Fold:
Amino acid sequence: MFHGSIPADLRSIIYEHADSWPDTDLYVGCSGNFTIERTLHARPGEHRTIHGNDVQAYSSALGWWLAGRPLDYQLKEEHRDQLAWLEPYLTTPTHTLATLMLGTRFLQYVGRSGVYYERMVRATIGQFPTMHAKTVAKLEALTLRLGSYYCGDVRDYLRDVVPADAPVAMFPPFYCLAPDERLLTEDLRWVPCGELRPGDRLLAFDEYPPDGMRLRRWRRSVVTRSEPAVKECLRVHLADGTSIVCTADHPWLADQYDSKTSGGKRRWVRADQLLEKAPYVLRLLDTWEEARTYEAGWLAGMFDGEGSIHIGQASKLQLSQRPGPTADKVIDLLKRHGFDAGAKLRPSGVLGIEVAGGFPTILRALGTLRPERLISRLAALDIEQMSVRSRGNCRVRVVAVEPLGERPIQSITTTTGTYIGEGFAMHNTGDYESQFAAIDHYFDWPAPTYNELDEDGKEEIIAAVLDRPHWILGLHIARDELRPWLRGVVQTSNRGLPIYVYASSGPRRVVRPAQQVTPILMPKIGPNEDLGDRMAIHVLTGGQFSAIRSQFMSKTILPGSPLLACGVSVDGRIIGAFAYLPPKYDPSTAYLMSDFPVSWTRYRRLAKLIVMAAASREAQLLLQRSLSKRLTAWSTTAFTNNPNSAKYGRGIPGVKLQKRSEPAADGIHRYQLQYGGPLGGWTLDEALTEWKRRHGKDTR
Structure:
């Protein structure tokens, strides 16, 4: 019915401030999905009239309907024949709104060629009477109503419509960060998607194989929309050590099995369902950086002067040169830059030097060396004859999906519906805003005119809200000048983006998300007990790890979701815990995310024993079983005000300081230290014996 909701903690803050407002009408700006209106309406004893405002087609349809206004939404003339079957469902405001709501799901399939789209449209037409009737029933059961709805710029709304003394509530879409996921542009550069703008050209591929074909083809694509948003995000960890942050509903092109014959079985799978449905994602290309060395410039000049490119069944990037020192230098420098180069002597006596590896390698060579003539030549060639072939792809297994909470993202829409993100085949549908773009495309409606909201416009909105006796304003960024009015900081998930709630009056508080915890059914070592002689590790559930972590890990460390979490016990008593993430930097090196002892023992250096347990052969086997790959080392990061870590720095065999950075990236400590060591160099029994020899007599 409505998309999204306000968390319970934020809802209670709104309730508290509404109590201090006068008994008059309430006005909401930037209504979006009317979450504030729903919150105020659901408040016990609330009876005041609520007014809403927005500019989008979907929000305006909801707003006008909630205000009892007619909905002037008509199919555009050019789409009437195509969507004539919808006309009977546009007869009343309620029927029209139900149709628009359902349209956010099925209109993405209309007007697109291909068996898949045609099948989806046919299925929608067949099921539509039932779906429409159910949606109408849900609408008629709603009790929320608005006193009025203003479709227009919120600045005009605050200035011309809202009474000067009326309470105002607003959570405007102000975002402060741009994501750094890189997309491949048509000129072969990897550009952060936060820097892309409508009209920018990308390299992409078919959303589905064209009719009668088994494989997708390469395509050129154009960015049609690029907007910031804040959504629930995940970090997808891959077996090759790559990790990519994306939204939970972000579709990846994936296979269920790592099979050479699965090209026809590939499907689009949401990020939060990859592990369950299709854990092998498709890498189309390796990423690259432009080589800015003298040697790279020399190679680019050689290719621009003597090179050629051919696209087809046997794609080639080559240059011609007579045998001798120059040809030898070309081959040597190509190999130094990571390219296989073959040379063949032609009947003319000229040596043909070719970059081996097919179309993906040709793109990498052009993008790395940047011979501008050949890049321009590529732009004129028909790449759409090229299939996205299995031999040029690499299936990479998803090993973990880590929830991150709310994060800023850049919502991208392209003409193909696809793009190449960090080398992987990705889809731009599934994001919240693109669901509603189809309403503008297929329907005429009384859309308002308004200026784009730039930084000055945002400041104007904030100033207009503050210039009132009663208001509440939620922002995703802290504003120092608003500190006197800060009433709450709400974090909807452990790693979620905080919402800073400013208001004209009311109590102050900080609300953090509650963790789901499960007790560990094993006693912990007592403060005066001696360690026994048999150490073991126990795989923990997420709730069990959260429980012990919340008790004993430093409160300055943000919690995360591990690949593997284990409790460490000696003679049946828990002495600590550790947790691993998949490899971050080296494919054979697991990342030790957390390691800590219980805090009430008599041993000063018990933390070292937890690290030794985490590096044991038993821990190595559990990790390798989780990842189905060989791991030989571990690494971790320590934040401290000292140049060395007391926990990792001494007394653990094989552990070395790998890197020291100053200042630390957490903004709190002076040093950031990278430590690492061998994995599987000892058993748990050997670790306990060695720790007792070195540290067992140290007590508090």
The first strand starts at residue 26 and ends at 29. The CA atoms of residues 67 and 403 lie 38 Å apart. The two ends are 60 Å apart (CA to CA).
